[in-house]
Structure formats: C-alpha cells, structure tokens
Specification:
heterodimer, A: mainly alpha, 2 strands, 2% strand, B: mainly alpha, three-stranded mixed β-sheet, 20 helices, 73% helix, globular
C-alpha cells in the first residue's frame, strides 16, 4: 500500500467532483458522497499513521517521477498524524452538517458539500506533499474553496469573505515569493532536497528573505496575531457548519506547514539560532494569546467570542512552535489536536443553539442547560478543556507548553500561558453561568430541546473525545509526537 | 512499626474514587424519581465508607494499598496510594458524608429546593475528587483531582442562582482557579527541577537546588493550596460562599474542600519539601507567621459577624490555620495535633453547620441576634451546638481539646512561645464568638420560641451523631476507626526524629 500518501487527497478530490454530478440528480446524494469520501480519507489516514508508526515513513513519487524532479508525497509521523486529525474532524463535522445546512442554507447544499470536500482535499494535500510548490497549489485550492464556502451565509458573509480573500491572496503571493527565492538559491523544490542544500547557503540573504516571506505568509494563513484580522468576521458570519469545519482545522494546517518548514526545510538550528524567526513567532504567539483572550471577554456574540478564543488558542500553537524546544513543540502539536476537538465541539454547540433557538447572544442563553442538557454537557466539557481543567485534553497541551516555557527560561511566556487560563475561565464561565443559572424571563424557549441525533451525536462524540484525549495524551505524545520533535533534541550546531 | 512501608496492589483506592462517580451518573439519570435518586446517594455513601475503612487494618499494619493506572504524561503516572495521612482524611470525609447525605435529604426537601438532581450529583462528584486528593500518590494526580474538586463545587456554590450566589461563584472561581494556576506552575517547576513528582515521606527536594529558588517554589505551593485552605489573605471567598445550601457549607466548606487545601499543604510540607528542608530555607517561619496571623485575625473577624454561617466560616478559616501551624512545627506532636485536628474540627464544625441549617429550616433565621431563647424551641439542636462550641474552644471532653493539646505540646517542644500564645489566645476568642450564641439560646427569653419544635428527624439525628462523634474523639480518640493512630503514624512518618 505505498499508494497511501496520494490516496488520501485523491479520495477527497474525487468526491468533490462527484458531488455536483450526483447532487444534480438528487440533493441528498451530495451529503452521502461527502460522508463516504471523508470516511475513506480518514480510514486511509489512520492506516497510514499505523503503518508509519510500525514501518517508518512512506514516500510516494507522483507519476513515477523520482524527486527532486518529480513531486513527492510523504507520510511521516508528523504528516500522518495531521492527516488523521484533519480527516477525522472533517468527517465528524460533515455528519453533523446535514440538518444544519438544510436548515440554514437549503438552496446551496450541493455547492457547499462540493466546496467542503475541495477544501479538505486542499488541506490534506498541504499535509502530505513533500514539494514546496505543490504545497502552494494545495494552499490555493483550500483557500479558494474556503472563500467561496465562507461567502455562503448571511448578508455580511460575502464582505467578510472578501476581506479574507485579499489577505489570503497576499499570503499566497508572499509564499510563492519565498519559494521562488528558495528555488533560485538551491535549484530545487523538493523539501528534503532543499533541506540538504540549504546549510551551505545559510549566509545567503536570499535564503533569509525566503524564510521571512514564507513565515509571514503562513502566519497570515494561520491567523497568528497581528495577522489575524480576517478571522473574527469570517467565523462569525459563515454558516455554522462551515465555521465548524474551517475553524478547527484550517488554521492548524497552516501551523503544520510552519512546523514543516521549521523541522524539515530549514533546520531548527537556522531559524532558532541564526535568524530569530522562532523568537518572533513565540512573542507574537504570546501577544496573540493575551489579545485574543481579552477580546473574547469583550464579546457578547457567542460565535465571535469563540472566534477570538481561536486567535488566542492559535497563539498557544505559535508560542509552542516558537519555543523551538521539544516540550514546547509537543505542546503545540498536541494543542493542534486538542484544540481541533474542542473548537469543533464548541462550534457544533453554537450551531445546535442556532438550529433550535436562532440566537447567538450569550445573554439569551439563559436556561438552556435545562432545555438542551446533552448539548450543554458537551459544551461544559469543551469549555472546561479550553480553560485547562484536567483531565480534559486542553490541560495537557498547556502542561507541555508550560514545561517548554520553563525549559526556555522565559518567565513572560510561562506567565502568559498561565494567565490566559484565567482569562479563558472568565469568558467561558460567563456563558456557563447563563446556561445553567441564568434567569430566562421570556418563555421563548418553551419547545427548545436537544437537536436531532444526527447533530447531537457528533457533538457528544467530540465532547467525550476531549476527555479521552486528555486521559490518553501520554500515548499520543510518546508514540507519535516524540518522534516528530526528535530533530529538536540534536545539540545546537 | 516497619520503617519502610510495603506497597501492594489494591483496587480499593480506585474504588473509593469510583463509587461516588458512578453514583453521580446514576443520580443524574434518576432525576424523575427523587426517592431512587436519594437511594443512590445513601448507597454510595455507605459503600464508599466501607471501601475506605476496609483499607484500615492493612495501613495500620504498615502496608500501603496502591494502584498505578497509566501514564498521564510521559514519566508521570496516574497513581493512587493509601497512606496513614491520606486514609485519615478519606475516612473522616467519607464517614461524614453518610451523615451529610441524610441531612441533605431532610434539608433540601424541607426547603423544597430546585435542581436537587444537580445538587446531589455535584455532591457525589465532589466526594470522588476528595478521595482522589486523599489517595493521590504524586503531585500530578493530586493536581488533577484538586482542580476537579474546584469545578465540581462550583454548581453547589451558585445553587441559589440569585445574583448574590452568582457573584459568590465568581469570587470562588477567581480565588480557586488562581490558586490552581499557582499550583500548576509549582508542579511544573518541581517536575523540571526534581524530575519526579512522587510523594515521598520526608520529601524529595534537596537543598542543592538553591535556597532562594526553593523558597519561591514553596511560596507558589503556599498560594496554590492556601487559596483552598483559606489562608489569609486568600480566605475571602469562603465567607461569601456561605450562600450555598447549608449541607454544602457543612461538608464541603468545613470538611472536604477546605481540608483538601490543608491536606495538600501537609503533602507539600511533608512529602515534597520535607520539614527539615522547609525549615532550612525559612519556609516554616514564613508559613508560621501567616498561619498565626490568620488564626488571630479570623477569630476577631468571626466576632464581628452577625450572620451565623459567616461567623462559622471565619471560625473555619482560623481552624484551618491550626492545622497548617501544626505541620510547620518540626515536632511529631505538632504534626499529630494538626492532622488529628483535621478530623476533630471536621466533626465539630459540621455539627455547628448542621445546627445552623436546622435553625434556618425551622425558623428561617440566619442571624445570631435573632436567636434569643431558641434553646427552648430546639433544645436538642442547641445542645449539639453547645458540644461543638465547647470543642472548638478546646475544652475537654470534646475532641478539639486533644488536638489543641498536642498542638500546644508541639509549640513547647520546639520552643515557640509566641505560637503557644497564639493558640491560647485563639481558644479564648473561639469561646468569645461561640459561647454568646449558646447563652442567648438558653438564657435569654423571647416570646417567639416557647413551644418545643425541632426540625425533622432526618436532620436532627445526623447532627446528634456528629456531636456524639466529636465527644467520642475526645474521650476515646483511637476507638472510632483509629483516627488517632492514623494521625500519629502519619506524623512519625514525616517527622521521624525524636518520638513524642
């Protein structure tokens, strides 16, 4: 099964093309094909992950052309892990989406599913590709489908999406510029090949420029503070299923690309010791954590609060990457996984609340704890995990980040990680208060109950997943993530 | 008694945690059948006590039931282990939970409270977390249950759902989550500095790590566990949290939650730093000053409270610092007194809260100034109250006398006249804020209370039991479940030098 690396994106791409055809016949086919496609992609990713863990990395040469001439797809511990996370979250959200999409945008079901699959294909492509330019292609595939997906939604969605389009295009061109510099410096586009040629060129200004362009580009795509400006509006106005699909995984995949650059393309030694890129990322991450948390506290719209919370959580990931030591990066990678679960769960809850009540404002959630007990139980678990209460998953990524910060000896980072838990407690407990102890003066919620099973189960699975991931984090860390961060253990050159 | 305690595999510590966890699930699922729901609570309380006390013979003979579940982070396992210190805490909490359960049912039904399912489920969850704290074999396990306890108590604090209750909940979270953050940092630093988190009698940190750094680390621990144990100036959430239903104040804010704080302090002092190291780096002096000040100030503040439950809360703040004070005396008697006070104070304070709750249910009154002559209407309740008050003031034959006696002995042995003075003074202050209530109740006359009218038996019987328990602890300290032996053995395990 050495075809696995390419099978994952191909499955998704294929279903993206099938959906308009089948959807033309019957609208419900769109959902069915999307779910099956996502399920297969997840199955392939999982199998890939297990194979990588038992046999080492899998390399696939597209069209039989050997690298560095041909394009190479690589499943190693890092990419297999990420592919599994992205396809799993995609699958769960897609299952949830059926009722929610029919409810919110009934006339755009078919294009929505086609675009969603295209988005997933692009994201998975970014993950498995071992080629710098191919990564750009997938970056654009995912971005273009994301612009379109986000524009489906209420009246303000197209404007928000347009803003994202502009910033996303800037990011895309910066990335291409960076890759261009790398290409004429090294004469190669294959990541492994470039990595071998780069150490001789570390003094070159062009390489430094390439690194800076690429990091600004990926920083924009992952919404690292202060490049996050596109995010809150987009998350707020897109259909809830779309937000639930995009928010947990899309920014994470850009973070993955950043880690890939750090670990594989440029050596950690270069970005940490010769060019202060990782320090900058760490400081921006820390600033983002604080900014996102404070802005989240100021929001009264639930979705917007979650969006700013995402800015803050991306800050965690940035900080972990920027620490550039093994524990920090383990924290960042684990947080990619954990946050994907938590945020997906939270946005699914937001979607369910909208599905049943049509409301977004936190102040109107009074009494929902009694009306939607299961949804709110999942919300409580995910919220506590965001705050970092053990044994929920969110605690453990913070734990590794904390240890990484201590190892780095930077007390500002340590304090930021700890303080933001308290800030998260402020905005999540405000919601919990409303949900469980708020007085609802209106009888508007008379007939409100938990959403139908197809929406409720994915939410509960994610909520339970947050607890399971927390208890089993040690397995993930010692079996997978410690392999990934091994390059950071090498002594500094 | 063997020098090195032998561990053996046992499911009992885990079962102690799980009994009430399962009960919490069953309670949630039986919300439509109140009688079935309350049955789960009672069954769980009895089972839990049976499981915990089943470990007693083994632990007293020097064995340690232990269970290591799995790695919760690489190199750190989720592990539970019953040692004398943990067992005595678990035993008193689970024993008092039985009484509290009956009392809760009487109290909640008498007041026709809303959301009783949430109340009982949270209560069961709190007890699970308490067992986890008591049996935690390392700092990480301890921290996990410590945070779970913080969160599972929150729904009980805001139970009333009034604006005042919600703001009390915010204050509670602000203090306890901040404390949790300090504790987390301390645990993380310990992990990086020492490479281990396993509790070891006598401590595992060593002075080679630098005095100033260790003192800073200790201060973080002190803030972390101090928030829960009401150490001043981190105490102010506790009087505010008295807005919770009285059984919550009784078991959680006098026994489980706040004692988890002082218990954590004892763990840090005796099993992370070790009393000797703590003395060397000046941590004991620091703590003694804060705890001594807390005792005196809290007692003075208690006098100024008219609300009965708030007065009791300030009294709790003071008494928690007795325990902390005991563990910073580098003498077995000090530790013995402190640890024994965990149990005796629990029995006495829970009695007083039960009485306050009975009065509230029967008369709707919460203030001391309204209680003139209530001894005529509720003589049984007020008799129990008197027993608790005598005990807190440290008068024999109630248990409080013994623990205070050992504490005083500890101050004498270590040559701390100031701390001895603090203990004696606070005994007087205790009498000063509790006896007037008794005097009002029995010797002042009032038209309101003339005929005999006690609260329901579901409430009166438990408070009689806890009052009797307080007295038994005083006259026969080792008779009931060997609380004295457990405390003594735990004390000797930590402060080995110079037996009392």
């Amino acid at each position: 099964m050495s075809h696995l690396p390419v099978l994952i994106p191909i499955t998704l791409l294929l279903s993206a093309f099938l959906i308009p055809l089948a959807g033309y016949v019957k609208r419900d086919f769109a959902f069915a094909i999307a779910s099956v496609g996502a399920f297969l992609a997840f199955a392939f990713s999982l199998r890939g992950l297990l194979m990588v863990l038992s046999q080492g990395e899998i390399r696939y040469h597209l069209g039989g052309w050997a690298p560095p001439i041909g394009i190479e797809y690589v499943l190693d511990a890092l990419s297999a892990f990420m592919a599994a996370v992205v396809t799993l979250i995609g699958l769960v959200v897609l299952i949830y989406s059926r009722r929610s999409v029919l409810h919110e945008v009934p006339q755009r079901v078919v294009p929505l599913y086609a675009l969603a699959m295209l988005l997933l294909a692009g994201l998975v492509g970014i993950i498995v590709t071992g080629d710098l330019f191919n990564l750009f292609v997938f970056l654009e595939i995912s971005s273009l489908s994301a612009y379109a997906l986000m524009a489906i939604g209420d009246d303000r969605a197209p404007v928000a999406s347009f803003r994202y389009l502009i910033l996303g295009s800037i990011a895309g061109s910066f990335y291409v510029l960076g890759v261009g510099f790398l290409y004429f410096s090294t004469g190669s586009l294959n990541m492994a090949d470039v990595a071998q040629r780069l150490p001789a060129l570390y003094q070159s200004r062009a390489v430094a420029a390439a690194a800076i362009f690429i990091f600004i580009a990926l920083g924009l795509k992952m919404a690292l503070f202060p490049l996050h400006l596109w995010l809150p509006d987009v998350y707020t106005y897109a259909p809830s299923a779309v937000t639930a699909l995009i928010a947990p995984i899309m920014t994470k995949v850009s973070a993955y690309a950043l880690i890939r650059m750090l670990l594989t393309v440029f050596q950690p030694h270069y970005l940490r010791d010769m060019l202060p890129v990782t320090s900058v990322i760490a400081w921006l991450g820390a600033a983002g954590i604080l900014y996102g948390s404070i802005m989240a506290i100021a929001q009264s719209d639930f979705r917007r609060m979650l969006a700013y919370s995402s800015v803050s959580q991306i800050g965690y990931i940035g900080l972990g990457i920027g620490l550039a030591n093994p524990l920090g990066l383990i924290g960042a990678l684990l947080h990619i996984l954990n946050h994907a679960f938590m945020k997906a769960c939270l946005f699914l809850v937001a979607g369910s609340i909208r599905f049943r009540t049509g409301r977004w404002e936190v102040s109107s959630f009074a009494g929902l704890g009694r009306k939607m007990p299961w949804t709110m139980a999942a919300f409580t678990v995910a919220a506590l995990s965001m705050v970092g209460i053990p044994p929920a998953a969110g605690f453990f990524s913070k734990w590794y980040l904390l240890l990484g910060g201590i190892d780095r000896g930077n007390w500002f980072f340590v304090a930021t990680i700890l303080l933001s838990s308290l800030l998260a407690a402020v905005y999540f407990f405000r919601v919990l208060e409303q949900v469980y102890a708020g007085r609802s003066e209106e009888s508007a919620f008379k007939n409100v109950s938990d959403p139908p099973a197809s929406m409720l189960f994915p939410t509960i699975i994610l909520g339970a997943g947050v607890l399971v991931l927390g208890l089993l984090n040690s397995i993930i860390v010692s079996r997978i993530l410690e392999l990934v961060v091994a390059p950071l253990n090498e002594p500094r050159g | 008694m063997p020098q090195v305690a032998e561990s053996y595999f046992s499911l009992a510590p885990l079962a102690a945690v799980f009994v009430s966890l399962i009960a919490a699930v069953l309670i949630s699922l039986s919300s439509r059948k109140p009688n079935l729901r309350e049955t789960w609570t009672i069954v769980a309380a009895l089972c839990k006590f049976a499981v915990v006390s089943s470990m007693l013979p083994a632990v007293l003979s020097g064995l340690r039931p232990e269970i290591t579940l799995f790695d919760i982070a690489p190199g750190v396992s989720l592990a539970l282990k019953a040692d004398p210190l943990g067992l005595s805490f678990a035993l008193s909490a689970s024993l008092l939970w039985i009484f509290t359960s009956f009392y809760s049912i009487g109290y909640m039904r008498a007041l026709k409270e809303h959301d009783q399912t949430r109340y009982f489920a949270s209560f069961a969850l709190c007890l699970s977390a308490t067992m986890g704290i008591a049996f935690a074999a390392n700092l990480m396990t301890f921290f996990i249950f410590y945070e779970v306890l913080t969160i599972s108590t929150y729904p009980l604090v805001i139970h009333k759902e009034s604006p005042a209750a919600i703001s009390a909940g915010r204050k509670y979270l602000a203090f306890l989550l901040s404390g949790g953050v300090a504790l987390l940092l301390a645990v993380g630093l310990t992990q990086r500095v020492a490479g281990t988190l396993n509790f070891t009698p006598g401590g595992f940190l060593s002075v080679s790590m630098g005095q100033a750094g260790l003192l800073a680390l200790f201060s973080l621990f002190l803030v972390g566990v101090g928030a829960k144990s009401g150490l001043m100036p981190l105490h102010s959430w506790l009087p505010t949290a008295m807005i919770a239903p009285t059984p919550v104040s009784a078991l959680l804010h006098a026994v489980a939650v706040v004692k988890a704080g002082v218990f954590g302090f004892a763990r840090v002092m005796g099993f992370v730093f070790g009393p000797e190291l703590a003395g060397e780096i000046g941590a004991t002096t620091l703590t003694a000053v804060i705890a001594g000040a807390t005792i005196v100030i809290a007692s003075l503040l208690a006098m100024a409270q008219d609300n009965l439950k708030r007065r009791l809360a300030y009294s709790t703040v003071g008494h928690l610092s007795y325990i902390i004070l005991g563990t910073v005396l580098l003498a077995p008697a000090g530790w013995l007194g402190g640890l024994f006070h965990i149990t005796t104070h629990a029995a006495m304070k829970i009695t007083l809260f039960f009485c306050a709750g009975a009065i509230y249910v029967k008369t709707g009154r919460e203030n001391v100034s309204e209680l003139d002559g209530i001894g005529r209407q509720m003589p049984i309740t007020m008799a129990a109250f008197t027993v608790g008050a005598l005990g807190l003031a440290g008068l024999p034959p109630v248990g409080g006398f013994l623990s205070k006696w050992f504490l005083a002995q500890g101050t004498v042995e270590t040559g701390q006249p100031i701390l001895l003075a603090v203990l004696l003074l606070s005994g007087l202050l205790n009498a000063g804020y509790l006896f007037p209530i008794v005097i009002r109740a029995f010797f002042k006359s009032s038209k309101d209370f003339t005929k005999f009218d006690e609260a329901a038996p579901l409430m009166v019987v438990p408070l009689l039991f806890t009052a009797a328990f307080s007295v038994l602890l005083g006259i026969y300290p080792d008779g009931i479940f060997h609380f004295y032996s457990l405390s003594a053995e735990a004390a000797l395990g930590v402060v080995a030098r110079g037996a009392p």
